[in-house]
C-alpha cells in the first residue's frame, strides 16, 4: 500500500494519490498536488487575519453556551446536594442532583449563548461599518452587547450593563495582549 506522505519541492502543496487504498501502483499520473494553505479568491481576503461573521457567530454563541452550561451544571450540582433531606434514598439524591444541574445548566447556558450571539452580531456590524478590527471595536461591541441584553429592564439598567460590558471586553482585550506578550504559548 502506498503512503500519501510524499512531499514536493514546493512547501505550499502536497502530493495526493486518490488510489492509495487500492492495489494500483503509484504512477506519476495518479499523484495530484493539493494546496496546504487556504486559497482565497481575492487578495484582500488573504490580508485579513480574522474570522468571518458567520464563524464569529458560531464561535461566540457556541463557546458561551458550552461554558454557561458547564458553569450552571456545576452550580446546580451544589444546590442539588444542599437540597438533600433526611431519609432520601440514593435514587432520589441522584434525581435531585440531575434535575438541579440540568435546569441551572440549561438556563445559564442559554443566557450566555445569547450574549455571545449579540456580541458577535454587533462586533461584525462595527467591523463592517468602520472596516477596522482593533481593541476599540471589541470595547464598542461589549458596550452594545450589555446595553442590548439589558434594554428590556430600562434605560438605567441598559446603561449600567453597557458600561460593564465595555469594561469586561476591554479587560479581556488587555489580558489577551498581556498573555501574548509575556506567556510564550
Automatic annotation (TrEMBL):
UniProt-annotated location(s): Membrane
Entry keyword annotation includes Transmembrane: yes
Classification via InterPro entries: Tim23-like
Transmembrane segments: none
GO cellular component entries: TIM23 mitochondrial import inner membrane translocase complex
One Pfam match: Tim17
Keyword Transmembrane helix: yes
Membrane topology: Multi-pass membrane protein
Molecular function as annotated in GO: protein transmembrane transporter activity
Keywords: Membrane, Transmembrane, Transmembrane helix
Biological processes annotated in GO: protein import into mitochondrial matrix
Name used for this protein in its record: Mitochondrial import inner membrane translocase subunit TIM23
Record organism: Brassica oleracea var. oleracea
Amino acid at each position: 500500500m502506498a503512503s500519501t506522505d510524499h512531499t514536493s519541492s514546493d512547501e505550499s502543496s502536497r502530493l495526493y494519490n486518490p488510489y492509495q487504498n487500492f492495489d494500483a501502483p503509484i504512477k506519476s499520473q495518479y499523484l495530484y498536488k493539493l494546496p496546504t494553505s487556504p486559497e482565497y479568491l481575492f487578495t484582500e481576503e488573504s490580508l485579513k487575519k480574522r474570522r468571518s461573521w458567520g464563524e464569529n457567530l458560531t464561535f461566540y454563541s457556541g463557546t458561551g453556551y458550552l461554558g454557561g452550561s458547564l458553569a450552571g451544571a456545576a452550580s446546580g450540582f451544589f444546590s442539588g446536594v444542599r437540597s438533600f433531606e433526611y431519609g432520601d434514598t440514593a435514587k432520589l439524591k441522584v434525581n435531585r442532583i440531575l434535575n438541579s444541574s440540568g435546569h441551572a445548566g440549561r438556563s445559564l447556558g442559554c443566557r450566555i449563548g445569547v450574549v455571545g450571539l449579540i456580541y458577535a452580531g454587533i462586533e461584525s456590524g462595527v467591523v463592517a461599518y468602520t472596516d477596522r478590527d482593533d481593541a476599540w471595536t471589541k470595547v464598542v461591541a461589549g458596550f452594545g452587547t450589555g446595553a442590548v441584553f439589558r434594554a428590556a429592564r430600562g434605560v438605567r439598567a441598559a446603561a449600567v450593563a453597557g458600561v460593564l460590558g465595555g469594561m469586561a471586553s476591554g479587560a479581556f482585550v488587555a489580558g489577551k495582549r498581556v498573555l501574548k506578550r509575556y506567556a510564550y504559548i
